[in-house]
Amino acid sequence: MSRYVLDAGPIIDLLRGQPEGKFVADLLTQTENSVYVHALNWMEVFYDASRESDVLQARTFLAALEEDGLIRSELLDTQFCEDAAQLKADWKKVSLADCCGVALARRVGAQLVTTDRHELENLSAAGVADIIFTR
After folding, report:
1. In order of start, what are the domains of the chain with their CATH numbers?
2. pTM score, whole prediction
């Protein structure tokens, strides 16, 4: 079984019909995959979708992804919060939401899927997390 954690960017690409969004669709159609999103990254997608269209469409889109197997993690225990906060302290230019995605990927032994090459390339190069860049 393969495990993936999605950052907001690849999900937004799927929502907007961008070619890079196909990668997310393919991950969700492969039943042997476990595909996660942290609640903070889910919130970024919801914000973007409701800003671009409306709240009802944002809810419908995200509910459909969850029906397709996307697992929303609301993990915020002490160890998780400390890991995400330490990532933020060590890698100052990385957003706290991205740090939550990285921390979740590390916790569940997954690859992080992101569009944030500029922000996360150094973490990948340093071996902090296994990261797939879709752009």
Report:
1. 2-133 (3.40.50.1010)
2. 0.96
